[in-house]
Write a structure and sequence with these properties.
By secondary structure, this protein is α+β, with helices and mostly antiparallel strands. The protein contains 4 helices and 6 strands. A 6-stranded mixed beta sheet has the order 3-4-2-1-5-6, sandwiched between helices. The longest helix has 17 residues. The protein is globular.
Length: 136
C-alpha cells in the first residue's frame, strides 16, 4: 500500500498510521532519518521504515514543514477498511532520493542484514552499531 501511495504522491513524504504509530517506508524513511534523525528499522528486506506515536504527529509534521518538504498523511481505518487523507502540505522541496534503505548492513531488526554472509561486513556493522550506541 505504501509503495502505491508513494507513486501516487510522487516526491511527497507519505505517512500512514499502522496501529498506534505513523510510519514512512523506503525513500521517505531514509529522508526523515536524514532530516530529523529518526531511527530507521527494517520494514522488509532492504527497505527501511521509521515510525512515531500517533500523539506525535503534529510535532513531526511541523518539523517537516520547517524544512519545507511536501508531505501527505493518510489515516487507515482498520475496521471500515478505508483510507483517507488526514493532512497535506505543499512545500517547495520534494523527496528526490532513490535509496529505499539507509544502510542494510546495520539494520537493527536484522531481517536480512546482507545478501551473503561476509565477515568484513559483519565486523563493520558491529563497529557502526557500537558507535551509534555511544552517540545516543
Amino acid at each position: 500500500m505504501m509503495e502505491i501511495l508513494q507513486k501516487k504522491n510522487k516526491g511527497k513524504i507519505v505517512l500512514c498510521n499502522a496501529g498506534e504509530f505513523y510510519i514512512a517506508v523506503g525513500k521517505d524513511a531514509v529522508l526523515l532519518h536524514n532530516l530529523l534523525n529518526l531511527k530507521t528499522t527494517c520494514f522488509k528486506p532492504e527497505i527501511c521504515k521509521i515510525g512515531f506515536p500517533i500523539s506525535s504527529l503534529e510535532k513531526y509534521t511541523d518539523l517537516i514543514q520547517e524544512k519545507n518538504y511536501s508531505y501527505i498523511v493518510y489515516y487507515f481505518d482498520k475496521e471500515k477498511e478505508t483510507l483517507e487523507i488526514l493532512l497535506e502540505y505543499q512545500g517547495n522541496k520534494y523527496n528526490k532520493l532513490m535509496e529505499n534503505n539507509n544502510n542494510c548492513y546495520i539494520c537493527s531488526k536484522g531481517i536480512k542484514k546482507y545478501k551473503k554472509p561476509d565477515k568484513y561486513i559483519i565486523a563493520l556493522a558491529k563497529l557502526y552499531e557500537d558507535e551509534n550506541e555511544r552517540n545516543e
